[in-house]
Amino acid sequence: MSKEHYFELYSNLQEITGNYGEVADIHIKIEDKDIDKEKEEGDKKINFPELQNQWNEFAKKYELKEIKAINDSRKEKLRTRFKEPEFAYEDILKAITEQSFLRGKNQKNWKVEFDWIIENDKNYLKILERKYVDHSPTPQPLTFMNL
Fold this sequence. Notes:
This protein is 60% helix and 0% strand. With 147 residues, the protein is an all-alpha fold. The termini are far apart.
């Protein structure tokens, strides 16, 4: 609903009721319904069951933790992430396959988890930027000088 429409509705309700407090309550209820409607429309664009299935299949293949459900907290974080132009779910999964550190090949056997990826706007970028690519030193060929 546009600001102009809110203003017109607000003005009309003030004239009808003569009570500014009641109008403010109605205004808040209308805004809450608009927010709920936006969430519903956003949810139609994000296929949460499909994301869960994709992750769980990926997790099985690479021995990562599967997720049981995409609850409200995860939905909210996913809505936020999907609004960010850099967030590309399939690209993130592909990048994980290229970085063994994320799959537990590190000193602490730490493995990437679904919640870590969606937690903030930094973690998934680290994956996409290949921050965890193996940087093993290339062995030097044996020569007389380095013996």
